[in-house]
Amino acid sequence: MNKPLILVVEDDSAVRNLIATTLETHGYRFQTAPTGESAILEAVSHNPDVILLDLGLPDMDGIEIIHKIRSWSKTPIIVISARSEDTDKIDALDAGADDYLTKPFSVEELLARLRVTFRRLHDVGDSVQDAVYTNGDLKIDYAAGCAFMKEQELHLTPIEYKLLCLLAKNAGKVLTHTYITRE
Fold first, then answer.
1. 3-state DSSP assignment of residue 174
2. Whole-model pTM?
3. CA–CA separation, 112 and 104 (whole Å)
4. What is the pLDDT confidence band of residue 113, given thresholds at 50, 70 and 90?
5. To the nearest whole percent, how much of the chain has pLDDT over 70?
6. Cβ atoms < 10 Å from Cβ of 124
7. How far apart are CA 140 and CA 2, in angstroms?
8. How far apart are CA 47 and CA 84, in angstroms?
9. Are strands 29-33 and 77-81 parallel, antiparallel or unpaired?
């Protein structure tokens, strides 16, 4: 499997470059977006594993971006903002952010928060693989490696089964052709 993809949404080029250099040094893949509009486009196009989001962007507020992304994706969002008031943190977390890091921050703390986020994603992935996925009449038994529709076993090729599992694992997300073929 490929290394995780992180979307860095930051309008300040110095901070964006610091984060990008840190991620690159530690072997992460990343995309950058300097505006809210480009952030949403990148999120839809590249389906990142985690989003690092500044709240103070030139074209829209980060809270609005969180709301838009949460309307179609459960991708973890870590806010990195100079806003340090409790109300700002609460608003971001209530909007759907998963974590909040106040500027200035240490790169070690950022990396630790990323590790925690990836550990949570990994743990959720493990529990999904041990479980049975159900959506309406569709049932996928991951342990047995088979799928059922209205209690009738589906006879799928290995590629069809892998594709079905990938789509089930990413239910509610928009997946690009590139992402699907890569996975």
1. coil
2. 0.70
3. 15
4. very high
5. 93
6. 12
7. 24
8. 29
9. unpaired
